[in-house]
């Protein structure tokens, strides 16, 4: 293979995508001594910069997804060590908070769904304390008087994904990861092996192994034999960043997830007075319009749960596209094409799964095989 | 009086404020041959750039305000000639539309309020046709099936206030009005007469007559004897600019005002696919935060009236401050201080009242007296 325009020496690992999954893969690979390059260009609708940052492995959407829930719990349990290392190496705070999560049922139907979820959580060994409405309001006094009860998950956490991105970028650079601000158009394949990538700006970069971690853009990358990369579809999410008036105490002190007449909604507080209110889940293709209906649903359900949000400022409106695989589980590790890996399809769980994904990918890149705990999510399962 | 730093010769008329009311006053004064200067600096929360542009003299808020309604009807009737002249002089289209207004009652209580309003409109000689729910939906098929009935006001109009501002600025400049991009700190008073203004940048501008048309900033202008300028308070309005998907027909074809469980809401369509959804009315002082509660109310009531708005993009969120006098009616013409006029306090009606205000102010500036039709609104009534 000739790569005439390559200004860089060949990498051991070239990661396509500079979101959370791409950067965590690069950082962990570099810590294993692999010479690593990341190619990416910030996109405002990339999931990483929009995500709320809940680290809640058990959610109302995950019935029938027990293996994913276990993987999530494993990743959540790695978070304290992960952020400690990351903040130490980068010097950048990640906004990690260990205040737990309160899951709230708005009406009787919601309560029965939540009860089933609580039983599932207990069965999986996740801490889940059933609370009366009064106990919920004792934890979060601004909850609507009408709520019917809830579950307290004291081990759930949250993190600020934008801070996490910044920390991962700095830590990666300090570990010698090379950052290339460009888009990848194609994987360069020769003699049945991935050998590098072609850039939109024209050049090529050579690498021993290529990781596609480009979120919803992953299937759009050319040059690959058919079927090597499963479809990854965008799942649109709209959310609002609300802000407390200066000097006022936060309206909620921990992540509050609600089921409001069957509709899920959450409030994630951050240091500094920001509250993330999210999020819609819409199968709308590449549509990234902020819509009247999406914002209305968020405000309606958020208001039912915590009426006092009415007084908060809407500081920012966000639309993001979550990358979802056909079975809604991540696609990790080697593909059928030698030299080509995937780290994609994390759907709603990219932030939660970042530490475990980084570890699993570094293992696969160093040894050629995913660790046991990640094998279920092998990229080859769908191809 | 000495104005040593004045780079301009003294004006016949100096208008403080470059919003709709200031510019319409300047343009009409210039057309009377008065040498006119406008001093102002764009403020994003000024009412003119945020207003929806309904020209609907009879609204649910105006019971007990019959004289204002008559003034509004007079001004609306001047609109066709006004925009024809303005577009001719400026070459700038104003987005004037003559499609009429449909007033909709959501429930039975709303219908009885609307019925009273219809009777008032008829008594005042305004065209108002009572329609059944079916007739309303024949005019606007996207109305919610549940609406109870309405009133069609075929003579109501709408205009695009941002386009109107641009047209007034161009027309004024073509009439020789001088535009000064600055803020006025004080009126210069000597020998018991207004003689000009002092600028924030330092200089002074001399003028034979000064008009304060600075909206909610009007009472903050210094240098004046107490009581000459009545209080003008800000009334906060939040609204949304929605956008139809490209190529789709508009969701409403005329202004639709609704009463939804007692809460007023409106949708104003514009050429190009924009729909303005407004507006809150909040007595919050200078607060210009976009709030969760404000946006939620708009979307909730808008959705009750026209459920299909859910599909529309939120293209822009706006917060404006309407300038309201103590009796909520405009303050026009000469004050007790010779040489000082007011054109302020137009509250929700600045766009509607612009033509009549321009004419009345030009008359007062040329002759010293307001015309009969504007005399009720004399600035001296409250001082």
Automatic annotation (TrEMBL), chains A, B:
<dbReference type="GO" id="GO:0050660">
    <property type="term" value="F:flavin adenine dinucleotide binding"/>
</dbReference>
<comment type="pathway">
    <text>Cofactor biosynthesis; thiamine diphosphate biosynthesis.</text>
</comment>
<feature type="domain" description="FAD dependent oxidoreductase">
    <location>
        <begin position="12"/>
        <end position="363"/>
    </location>
</feature>
<dbReference type="GO" id="GO:0005737">
    <property type="term" value="C:cytoplasm"/>
</dbReference>
<keyword id="KW-0784">Thiamine biosynthesis</keyword>
<dbReference type="Pfam" id="PF01266">
    <property type="entry name" value="DAO"/>
</dbReference>
<dbReference type="GO" id="GO:0043799">
    <property type="term" value="F:glycine oxidase activity"/>
</dbReference>
<dbReference type="InterPro" id="IPR036188">
    <property type="entry name" value="FAD/NAD-bd_sf"/>
</dbReference>
<protein>
    <recommendedName>
        <fullName>glycine oxidase</fullName>
        <ecNumber>1.4.3.19</ecNumber>
    </recommendedName>
</protein>
<keyword id="KW-0560">Oxidoreductase</keyword>
<dbReference type="GO" id="GO:0009229">
    <property type="term" value="P:thiamine diphosphate biosynthetic process"/>
</dbReference>
<dbReference type="GO" id="GO:0009228">
    <property type="term" value="P:thiamine biosynthetic process"/>
</dbReference>
<dbReference type="InterPro" id="IPR006076">
    <property type="entry name" value="FAD-dep_OxRdtase"/>
</dbReference>
<dbReference type="InterPro" id="IPR012727">
    <property type="entry name" value="Gly_oxidase_ThiO"/>
</dbReference>
